[in-house]
Design brief:
The complex is a heterodimer. By secondary structure, chain A is of the alpha+beta class. Chain A has a domain of 164 residues: Porin. Chain A is built from 9 helices and 9 strands. The longest helix of chain A is centred in the first third of the chain and has 25 residues. Chain A is elongated. Chain A starts with 5 loop residues before the first helix and ends with a strand. About 12% of the residues of chain A have low confidence. By secondary structure, chain B is mainly alpha-helical. Chain B folds into 2 domains: 85 residues, RNA polymerase sigma factor, region 2, helix turn helix motif (Rna Polymerase Sigma Factor, Chain: A, Orthogonal Bundle), CATH 1.10.1740.10; 93 residues, Winged helix-like DNA-binding domain superfamily/Winged helix DNA-binding domain (Arc Repressor Mutant, subunit A, Orthogonal Bundle), CATH 1.10.10. Classes of the chains: A alpha+beta, B mainly alpha. The interface between A and B is large, with 42 and 54 residues.
């Protein structure tokens, strides 16, 4: 009895189960059909996937604008500074009426006086008959003399002291200089928008695959719009990423190759021999040569090609920026959604044009790519402010793909990281 | 209808062509999925997910290869993903349970039915079953299995060895029962 060795066991299972067929239940097709229908619907929602980040960004920006503009406490510098100079006359100024021009609801503490400042004057003593005083039954007025402060000469010059019998407490705008309505612009740092163009390379690292580390070069070009408030900013935009990847293709060619040899008898001769009975006989002598046999055979080859994959990317970042003299330092982090716009892979026709060889078969050996992926990006940079509007600078970036880059099996390297350097040109827009 | 035409019709969204493609390969692929699953329900899930992937990625299929081979590869990959997503529920098997070195005869295996063989594979622990299927039936190398399952080559080899021992043991038991019945 032969023992069942590993090879026999393998053969037993392989032969019997390789072409094993079982009819699945009918409900399976219904579920698959439903799945395909959902997939079709999902492809319709690809547009929604595209729009969603944009809507998210715009709504966030709108919210921040609303909160920033309507909330006076958002600007600390504004609250700390008075609205007018303190060397104004000491009268009860209704500053709140002016302050409404600059969307301010609270009157700075400096101007909330407990009582109006009276302008002390010498009230002339009127010679009144003591009888008149008695008739009115009023208590006698205690007349006092007070010195006029020397720091208000202009008012004294204007006031007809002789006729003045009541304190000056009413609003007299002609006594004040016109308020500087632009003054608040110097104190408030408003929110603003920036438009920027960025370009630069990315080195994408797909990790170790098969025999080595796979890296690819990507070139980015994009336009960003950022909304700055205080030291922070929100940035979104659209960017084109042109990924250049080296792919391997297996192909077969008809080649005229040696497939064997044949032997040809070039000449023959006879020599005389003698058999066992002593009779002579002719022994043939053959002179041969070998010749190769050629035929057309299919031969497998491999070739590498640099293929281009164009992605459209929508970044959404939150950052912080600090200005130091003419330089601005910033750091930002956020998510990007990228989807494959166009894939330009090498075709058998292109191969034929290049080499003049028509392949019998052509098969890409690379994994197929997902139509879209999400990534998380960290970046920091420095800008040089050439003037109040224009800045330029460099921005090193690090990106980590958080969704699979390749479709199909979850192999190593499907979620690449990338290291990039962007050059950014910024134009500051008026708010 | 040829494969190229069938693929073209499916890509244009014709439901009847999609159903035709499904019915052409369903029984074969269900057989493949049954080998990777531990029961029929699990096999159904894998096959349904696999066919949905087939239709999703049909545009990537190059008609210079066999459609059946391509579909089968997707099924196997789906089964691998299914296995990896359920790794936390992995069964473990003590090495002592499969240390029986007795061997059974080649002749004794001739009468073993397909159903029994399938049952033996399905009863293997998850990891053993994956490696055994990929190596013995799909013809993957240990390197490829290691890459696919995210394990080392040595783990793949040892799991294959243990799977063989478990199967040898089970076949021996079946063999003994058969002889008893004959006697």
């Amino acid at each position: 009895m032969n023992r069942l060795h590993d090879n026999d066991l393998d053969r037993l299972f392989a032969e019997k189960l390789d072409d094993f067929r079982v009819e699945p239940p009918e409900r399976s097709w219904k579920k698959v059909a439903a799945g395909i229908a959902i997939t079709t619907t999902v492809s319709a929602t690809a547009l929604s996937n595209f729009i969603r980040p944009v809507v998210w960004s715009l709504s966030t920006i709108a919210t921040v604008i609303l909160v920033t503009v309507t909330n006076p406490s958002s600007n600390t510098e504004y609250a700390a500074r008075p609205m007018a100079e303190v060397n104004e006359p000491a009268v009860s100024l209704q500053i709140d009426k002016m302050s409404s021009l600059i969307a301010m609801e609270e009157i700075p503490v400096n101007y909330i006086e407990a009582a109006p400042a009276l302008i002390p004057v010498n009230i002339p003593v009127v010679e009144t008959a003591e009888a008149d005083i008695a008739e009115t039954d009023q208590p006698p007025i205690a007349l006092t003399e007070t010195e006029i402060p020397l720091d208000m000469p202009e008012y004294l010059a204007l006031l007809p002291a002789a006729n003045l019998s009541v304190p000056l407490i009413s609003w007299q705008p002609q006594l004040l200089k016109a308020p500087d309505l632009q003054q608040h612009d110097k104190n408030i740092i408003p929110a603003w928008f920036e438009l920027s163009y960025q370009t630069g390379p990315d080195i994408m690292d797909f990790g170790m695959q098969n025999n080595g580390r796979i890296t690819s070069l990507a070139i980015n070009n994009g336009v960003d719009l950022s909304f700055h408030f205080s030291d922070f900013y929100l940035r979104t935009g659209i960017s084109s990423m042109n990924l250049i990847q080296r792919n391997q293709y297996d192909y077969a060619l008809n080649e005229y190759q040696q497939v064997g040899e044949y032997t040809m008898v070039d000449s023959m001769s006879f020599i005389q021999g003698i058999d066992s009975a002593g009779n002579p006989y002719a022994i043939p002598q053959y002179y041969t040569s070998s010749h190769p046999v050629y035929d057309s055979v299919a031969v497998e080859h491999s070739t590498n090609a640099s293929d281009n994959y164009q992605y459209l990317e929508i970044p959404m970042s939150l950052g912080i920026q600090k200005d130091i003299r003419r330089f601005s330092l910033y750091a930002q982090g956020g998510f990007s959604y990228a989807f494959l716009l166009n894939a330009s892979e090498k075709t058998p026709a292109e191969f034929y044009e290049e080499t003049g060889n028509q392949p019998l078969s052509w098969q890409s050996q690379s994994l197929s790519r997902n139509k879209d992926f999400w990534s998380f990006t960290l970046a920091a940079g420095v800008l040089y402010n050439a003037n109040t509007r224009l800045s330029f600078g460099v921005e090193p970036t690090y990106r980590y793909c958080i969704s699979p880059f390749y479709a199909g099996d979850e192999r190593l390297g499907q979620a690449p990281v990338s290291y990039g350097l962007k050059f950014r040109l910024v134009y500051k827009l008026s708010f | 209808m040829g494969e190229a035409q069938l693929v073209k019709n499916c890509l244009s969204g014709r439901a009847e062509s999609q159903e035709l493609l499904y019915r052409r390969y369903a029984s074969k692929m269900f057989g493949v999925c049954l080998r990777y699953a531990k029961n029929k329900m699990e096999a159904e899930d894998i096959m349904q997910e696999g066919f949905i992937k087939v239709f999703q990625n049909l545009k990537n299929f190059r008609c210079d290869g066999s459609l059946e081979g391509w579909v089968r590869r997707i099924m196997v990959n789906t089964a691998i993903n299914y296995y990896k997503s359920n790794l936390k529920y992995l069964q473990t098997l003590d090495i002592d349970d499969c240390s029986n070195n007795d061997n059974i005869s080649v002749e004794a295996t001739d009468n073993i039915s397909l159903k029994t063989l399938l049952s033996l594979i399905q009863k293997l622990p998850e990891g053993y079953r994956m490696v055994f299927n990929l190596y013995v039936i799909e013809g993957y190398s240990h390197r490829e299995i290691a890459d696919s399952l995210g394990i080392s080559e040595n783990t793949s080899k040892s799991q294959l060895s243990r799977a063989r021992k478990v199967l040898q043991d089970k076949l021996k038991t079946i063999n003994a029962v058969c002889y008893e019945q004959i006697a």
